[in-house]
Write a structure and sequence with these properties.
The chain has nine helices and 17 strands. The protein is of the alpha/beta class. The strands form four sheets. Strands 1, 2, 3, 4, 5, 6 and 17 form a seven-stranded mixed β-sheet that branches. Strands 8-15-9-10-11 form a five-stranded parallel β-sheet, covered by helices on one side. The chain has a three-stranded antiparallel β-sheet with strand order 12-13-14. Strand 9, helix 5 and strand 10 form a beta-alpha-beta unit. Helix 1 packs parallel to helix 2 and helix 1 packs parallel to helix 8. The radius of gyration is 23 Å and the shape is elongated. The two termini are 22 Å apart.
Amino acid sequence: MTRELFGTAIVGGGAAGLSAALVLARSRRSVVLLDAGAPRNAPAAHIHGFLSRDGFPPSRLLEIGREEIASYGVRLIPHPVGSATGDAEDGFVLTTEEGSEISARRIILATGVEDVLPDIPGAREAWGRFLLHCPYCHGYEVGDRALGVLGGAPGAVRHALLVRQWSPDLTFFTNGSVLTEEDEHQLRARDIRMQDGRVTELLVDGERFGGVRLDSGDAVPVDALFLRPDSRPRTELVVALGGGVDGAGFVHVDGSGRTAVPGVWVTGNLVNPRAQVITAAGHANAVAMDVNADLVDEDVRGARRMPALSGEAVGA
Ligand SMILES: Cc1cc2nc3c(=O)[nH]c(=O)nc-3n(C[C@H](O)[C@H](O)[C@H](O)COP(=O)(O)OP(=O)(O)OC[C@H]3O[C@@H](n4cnc5c(N)ncnc54)[C@H](O)[C@@H]3O)c2cc1C
């Protein structure tokens, strides 16, 4: 099997991975981007809060990004990476689930997070349309409507107090959790209704949302339900390369996205689950510059060892 060699391999082609690819390709580096093609916001109809792109379909933004990086010669491989080995000294090797191998001097991982939804019938169908996590993404569109917040997850009360900014008609579904006296005071102070009982179903009917069904059998109509999902970073590859993770499963990095493994950077939601599209892209832009600077240093070391070789010969 032939193994293709690149300066930098980027895993993950969402906003972060594409942004890093653009900066590195414009730095005249050879770049390969490997992408499984399942960005986090795919279920949403629009991106909001991205200056100059507010209201854009998420798929369109990525399509433009792919066109831009292709115009600078980035190689796009639309397959998931299954394994990662090697080191900065001898080069890294990525193997796609299809079995092709890529070799690279540096690795940027931008594989994002997986949002683990509650095990409630209808949650999957409602996700990104009626079941929402981010008021900054969707709050304006459902402003002043009848909204709910699903309790039971850490930070749910705080989330309700936040969502209240977008609508005065808000119900907090305790969903079996027990509220402290302080929680109740805060919710009452902001006129947020409290509804006891476990949520057993989200009532999705095609393009309509009927609200939630409780274990009492009652249905409570709301136009949208917010929750704090459990967002799990996809760290398998960085761990395979020797990177450490914290108690919440996030990768140890310095301020520029470098992991403890020389030659491996992480960016986007993989390091910060709260990063919006513009933030993920911005962080990746800075990460790419750091990767390029690191390659420049290595090129200088290589050129000093072998003066006959130009920077371009040792670079890429
Ligand atoms: C429903 C919803 C709506 C949202 N709305 C907004 C909004 O309006 N505005 C906003 O700014 N933000 C919004 N967000 C947040 C937004 O999705 C993130 O900010 C953004 O996706 C982060 O980009 P990323 O590149 O880090 O990760 P992603 O966009 O998730 O990209 C990661 C990519 O890596 C790929 N990948 C994973 N593992 C592998 C592997 N092993 N090999 C190859 N590829 C792999 C994935 O398939 C995916 O394509 C929303 C999120 C959700 C869930």
